[in-house]
Amino acid sequence: MHARIDISEIESETKIRAKYLRALENEEWDLLPGPTYVKSFLRTYADALGLDGKLLIEEYKLRHERLSDVELQPIAPLGQRDRRRPPRASFGRGWLIAVVIVGLVAALYFLGIAGNDDGSNNASTPTTATQPKSSSSKSGAGVAPAKKKKKEKTAPKFAKLSVVATGQVYVCLKAAGERTPIDGIVLTSGARQGPYKSSRFRIQLGTSEARLVVNGKSHSVPPASNGIGYEITPTKLRRLAQSKWPSCARR
After folding, report:
1. 13, 47 contact by CB (below 8 A)
2. Less crowded by CB within 10 Å, the N or C end of the chain?
3. Which residues 6+ apart lie within 8 Å of 213 measured at CB?
């Protein structure tokens, strides 16, 4: 309601039926299919409105979701038999691990002695010259640096539009779903209407004495003696032919 978005527009955007959206708004959880659907609907609805879906789901879990039967079971104290039983199994495993470690150390020791004896016998044999390392291995020129993947910016789903009058100008504004945020009024210099939020706008201006601010970016209107019309979406602002201008009740 604060963003002036109609429930039918959100229904079309999220593919969630309007009765479920109203149930979410009124916290009527019994009208929804189940907790799994509630959390899914909350996440999708929050994304469409630009809210924090994780925060809404955590709040729903704390306030409304019941604990499972396993989580509700009490923690049973240890029995006396378990307290008095000595850790025989762990004691036996500790001795076994110690014996294995001692055996490995002894084997490595004898292998080291045998290796030293073999090295002394073969000390008189000439050694081969080692080949110098290539410059590419030293400098690492042959290794291609890893490229960081850039996160693709997602296009906005809605356009936020404000109309600022720089002189006297007639304005007729239509939003998606044939909503009429500005129903054919005349603005004087310095007057501002909006911001309004919708997936698509169509606007008719009687003169060029106005600026259009779309998603924070200001657009000036070129001179037009017989008026001018635009179609505005989240990603572009396109001039309309006169036959496609919106019409309002007041003129």
Report:
1. no
2. N
3. 161, 162, 163, 164, 194, 195, 219
Q: Tokens standing for 13?
A: 């955007």
Structure tokens belonging to residue 220: 């000036």
pLDDT in tens, the chain (251 residues): 777 788 888 888 888 888 888 888 888 878 888 888 888 888 888 887 878 878 888 888 888 776 545 444 555 555 555 555 555 555 567 778 888 898 888 888 877 766 655 554 444 444 444 444 444 444 444 555 556 566 667 878 899 999 999 999 899 999 988 899 998 899 999 899 989 999 999 998 988 899 999 998 999 899 887 889 999 999 889 999 988 899 897 66
Q: What are the residues whose beta carbons fall under 8 Å from the beta carbon of 180, sequence distance 6 or more?
A: 172, 173, 174, 248
